[in-house]
Amino acid sequence: MTEQGVRWTAEQVLALAPDAASRKAGSKLGAAGPWSGTGCAEGTVWGLCKGSGSRPYQTVVDLTGPAGPAYKCGCPSRKFPCKHALGLLLLWAGEDGLVPASAQPPDWAGEWLGGRRDRAGTGRARAEGGPGGGPADPEAARRRAERRAERVTAGATELEQRLVDLLRGGLAAAEQAGYGLWDETAARMVDAQAPGLAARVRELGAIPASGAGWPARLLEECALLHLLDQGWLRRDRLPDALAATVRSRLGLPASPEGPPVRDHWLVLAQYDRVDPKLTTRRIWLHGAESGRTPLLLSYGAAGRAPELSFPVGLALDAELTGYPGAGQSRAALGERFAAPAPAGFRPPGVTTAEASARYGEALRDDPWLESVPVTLGEVIPVPDGDRWQLADAGTDTALPLTRAARSRPGLWRLVALSGGAPVTVFGECGHHGFTPLTAWPEGPGEAVPLC
Amino acid sequence: MNGAPSGGDSTAPDSAWEELVTAALLGTDRRAPARLTPGRTAPAALLDAAAVMTVRRRAGLRPARAAQRPEPAPGDPRPALPAPAAHRLTTLLADRSGGAGSGRRGSSPDLMELLPQWLATANAHGYAAPPQALPALLDAARGRTDLRPAALAFAGPRALWLARLNADWRFALRAAPGGGAALPDAEEPEAVRRLWQEGLFAERAALLGALRARTPALGRELLASTWATERAEDRLMFLDTLRTGLSDADESFLEQALGDRSRNVRATAAELLSALPGSALAARMAVRATACVALDRTGNAPAITVEAPPECDTGMERDGVVATPPAGRGERSWWLAQLVEAAPLAGWRGRLGGRTAEEIVALPVADDWQGELHAAWCRAAVRQRDAAWSRALLGPPSAPEAGGPGAVSLAERAKLLASLEPAERAAWVAGFIATHGLSEAFQLLGVCAVPWAPPLGQAVVDALNIARDAGSYPWSFSGVMGLAERCLDPAEAVRLEALLAIPDEREDFAPGAGGYWAEAFQRLVTTLRLRAAMTRELAPPAPPTESPQAATPPAEPPRAAAQPPDAAG
After folding, report:
1. Is A104 left (phi over 0), alpha (psi -120 to 50) or beta?
2. A165 with B166: Cβ contact below 8 A
3. What is the DSSP letter of A4?
4. One domain for residues A393 and A316
5. How many folded domains does chain A comprise?
6. Burial degree of A152 (CB within 10 A; 0-12, 13-18, 19+)
7. Which residues pair with A286 in a beta bridge?
8. Which residues of chain B make contact with A226, given a CB cutoff of 8 A?
9. N or C: which end of chain A has fewer CB within 10 A?
């Protein structure tokens, strides 16, 4: 593959932007004007960008890092990547030959790149030496884990009591109590170091205001919370895999284990969920040979984009290690063997009936699962009153879109891409319906992100 | 969502579940569940049962029945955009959300301003829009009406299909006559007739406009067939569409319209006829006008004398002359102006001693009639698109404003320029800028062909450079700067390189002006580069029969040479 061949597209570059303002500012810098001394080699790009001061900013991007692209820029911006890095990558992505391939980066760029590579090397060496060495004091670690388990048990017991009280008095009474009750309970669960329970409890508070049918939904969620409590309290009687699932649902720390799987991982979708304190990035991958669909998670503190970033449509040659637990798709990214390159393949698609069956089967391993990742082959977006559904081209069945998906601009990109013809759609399929995340046209064509 | 994926498709109502929900809602103190597990309290037993049923219900969800599928979008036979151009479109549309930012413009280009040019070029090449870009395109067109025609033309039939599904994009259906159905053309006379007789006003107007553009005679005949039954305001609008493709063949129809009941229709018909120098009306006006203007040879030098018409007779009124002058104007000079304006310019040569337009314009005019007479000639030259007279009335570009032989204003000069060939127009404006600078040039630059011809581009760059050296702030010239970003030939970018440096601050300069100028030039150069890249990306790929060498992009701009040699080499 030539150097030109692995260059990204403008959309892929813009997907790295931490926010809309950076996307806009970066777009403007994606032209030759302010740039000089640009070049690229082996997954790194560099250039000098003229700003408002007399000295141009030195901008370097390393696309080969183990945790996604890394950036360095002389500008004072606190955003990562900053607009200069985005502009430089856009310039590189354009086919104007404005960023020539070059054998050797200039000194100012080479220094930083060299330092990064060295650190990555020592980091890897330490990681390899790690398991043998183990934690500094295994006895202390065990005691800490025990103490935490005790607190979680206390929290789960308290929550059970609150649920029982709730059911005794009736959900109708809880509606009048409002958010306060749930917020207070959630705070208790945070104190009990069970963030998974806290998050579920907080969501319960919103259900009474969610419109018709709320008692059934509230009962469902209360029952699943009860199930989780019971799972924790009787974890010693559960199969190991299910016990690990319960631990992960409770939000207890886990580390990836098992043999790493090397594959060409196609980036299916990447989207962020932004909370006031934390941005959570979810990246779905699809293995060309393994056929698996793992999930990478990456976190960013408030206002910062999570570090991991992979534009949709590229494929990584890398090793992934799964997290423990039955029915868990989460994985950790291990060693990467090459810079991400445009993928020439698509995930195989299934029918709507197979997709919902797949969700049903997945619940067997993890009853708390909201949705499973599925690629639907040959489906047509169809308006159904004020809702939308994805209908099989061949049969008369369809999956309704979730309420959230109906209000996103991505819905219209999907409808436009289809034009009434079948398309391939990747998304999350669950009891709320289907959330489309990425689509491919009927004929040849690139992946179109919908989220 | 309660059984969402199954929609209304679920099997028999799940009475056991309903029972649990009722018990939960009321509380187990009021309603205990039917079956109690030994050793469990009622609420715990209820939660146990609900957990099992919840997972069972979720696991048992089945797809719903598909709703009525939409008709597939009509096909778009146009070729797809080259990949780089499609990516460029994404970046141009990504800038849309920003809107008009306040404050100064900085050194980066205004991408939204480049979208019209991008769309025009893409449309000229006849590309189809990438389907996934249609929502952003429609949103852009929704916010900016000036973008709509080009954006909708580029968006093509699928955008109209999409607009029917989303109320936000209804405007697209209104803009496209017949809700997007293709207009019938001359080969389908029956469809044309039916649409003309049954269509809405907008559809009929669009049909007439389309016919006049291709087969003017057919359009006229169609209009004539229903002329007597149209309402007055519709007659006026339809008559106006005859401007397109106007020719001597329309004369008899227009002549007939001079007898129309509506005064506005009469006036429009007369105006159209006067634009046909061979028409009978033009001849009648020529007779009336030449009766008023004569050559006086009695003095030392020949001069023009004017004798304004003494009355406005019914014949003049029928030919579109408005009898009542606007407030503050003498009625005789008002009539004279209308006669001269409507008379064919070619007639003056014979009347005024075989002189050319230049010579006529140079003649002195007796009794302060010059302003009135020259202004009328200007309007006649614009209406008849007469290049020779326009040139004569414009005078040399170096003449001061309103000081040309025609003593015409900048607005009139801009209109006269439109009658000249693009190259001559550009050369004249270049000369104007070289003499008068940029402060008056905005209106004139607006009528020049894009991209600006080399002499004009050179003149603008030189004038900007002079303005900078004069020490003022660049935003005094922001209008011209904005135009230059959109209209300057991208090849000029090389010439501008030298202006990018921040000049040394001088005492007589406005503080910081040098930096702002460097920034403004930076933006100009960047925008020009971007436009060059846009044009290159939109060029159709070379046909595969050519040799590989020939297929490489031929016109890599000169800046490629400015890049440092490859470090490996």
Report:
1. beta
2. no
3. G
4. no
5. 4
6. buried
7. A266
8. 44, 47-48, 50-51
9. N
Residue that is written with structure tokens 């304006």 in the block: B341
Of all residues in chain B, the one with the smallest CA distance to A171 is: B25
Position A219 in a domain: yes
Extract the tokens encoding A9.
């597209």
d(CA B158, CA B172): 11
Looking at residue A323, which CATH number applies to its domain? 2.40.50
Which chain B residues are within 8 Å of A94, Cβ to Cβ?
84, 87-88, 533
In a domain, A441, yes or no: yes
Considering the entire predicted model, what is its pTM? Answer: 0.71
The DSSP symbol for B73 reads P
Smallest CA-to-CA distance from A360 within B60, B51, B53, B50 is with B60
Measured at the alpha carbon of residue A431, what is the angle toward residues A429 and A433, in degrees to the nearest 5? Answer: 55
Domain that holds residue A283: 261-342
Amino acid at B18: E
DSSP classification of residue A36: E
Residues in B closer than 8 angstroms to A418, CB to CB, are 131
With contact defined as beta carbons under 8 Å apart, do A272 and A280 qualify? Answer: yes
A/B interface, count of CB pairs below 8 Å: 266
Which phi-psi region, left, alpha or beta, contains residue B244 (left: φ > 0; alpha: ψ -120 to 50)? beta
pLDDT at B90: 86
In tens, the pLDDT along B223-261 reads: 998 898 888 888 998 998 888 888 888 998 998 888 888
Tell me the backbone φ, ψ of residue B344, rounded to 5 degrees: -60, 135
Where do we find the tokens 């030939």? B489
For CA atoms B511, B513, B518, B524, the dihedral sign is positive
B372-389 in b/e burial notation, b at 16+ Cβ within 10 A? bbbbbbbbbbbbbebbeb
- The region that residue B305 occupies, defined by phi over 0 for left and psi between -120 and 50 for alpha, beta otherwise, is beta
For A190, other C-beta atoms within 10 Å of its C-beta total: 16
> Is pLDDT above 50 for B182?
yes
Q: Which residue has the higher pLDDT, A223 or A444?
A: A223
Report the distance separating Cα A58 and Cα A48, nearest Å: 5
Q: What is the pLDDT of residues B131-154, one digit of tens each?
A: 999 999 999 888 888 888 889 899
What pLDDT score does B96 carry? 54
Residue type present at position A263: D
Average pLDDT of the residues of chain B: 80
